[in-house]
Every structure is written in C-alpha cells, then in structure tokens.
Amino acid sequence: TDFGRFPDWQPWMKSVERVRGGEGVGGVWRHTEKSGDRLDLEVTTWEAPRKLVTTIANPNLPFRGSWTTEIEPTPTGSRVTITERGEIPNPIFRALWRLFRPRKSSALRFIEAIP
Predict the structure, then answer these.
(1) Residue 97: φ, ψ to 5°
(2) 30-72: per-residue pLDDT in tens?
(3) Domain with 69 in it
(4) pTM for the complete prediction?
(5) Whole-angstrom distance, CA of residue 26 vs CA of residue 47
(6) Which residues of 24-39 are buried (b: 16+ CB within 10 A; e: fewer)?
(7) Which CATH number fits the domain that encloses residue 7?
C-alpha cells in the first residue's frame, strides 16, 4: 500500500502524510480531506498484499473506528472487500450523528472511487 497515493483514487482526499513509523503495523498516517477534515489512522494489521486494517488514532474524537481492506484474487481480477466499523460511545453525539450523518459511508465512497 502506498498511503501517499491515496488521493490518486480517493477524489475527496487532499493529502496523506506519515506521522510516525513506517508502512507496516504501528505506522500512523494523517489523512486530510479537501473539506479540511483530518483523521490520523494507525496500521493495526498488515498482511501484504491481502489484508490491511487501519484504526482511528485520534484519542480525543467523539468516535472510534476501523477499516479492514481485504483483496482476494479472482479469475478475472481481484475482489476488494472493505469493512467499516464505527462506534460513538457518547449518546448525545450518537443522536447527532443519526441526524447529520453523511448519506454514504466512507467504505462505499472507497468502493465507488476504485478505477
């Protein structure tokens, strides 16, 4: 995975920069969206070239979550499975999320952006 190239296939992404560590487990990458939103993601599982798990590394956010990306070969190419897991522990933030959440999950945005 070349994290720095995420903006090449994620049209909403402005930049991705290394915060600490390398590309394997323990590496932390700051994702900055064109909207200005930032999210630090830590690599928690790295089984190249088939599985990558990133976990939100910003401890002060009102939510937690992870993304698991799995790639399996098929006779005609590859099958990509992205599993998004999220948790909003605070009931007030959870209620606000239900009212104002994006219409599409970030996992669906990932899939739609794959060339």
Answers:
(1) -60, -40
(2) 999 999 999 999 999 999 999 999 999 999 999 999 999 999 9
(3) 3-113
(4) 0.81
(5) 13
(6) eeebbbbbeeeeeeeb
(7) 3.30.530.20
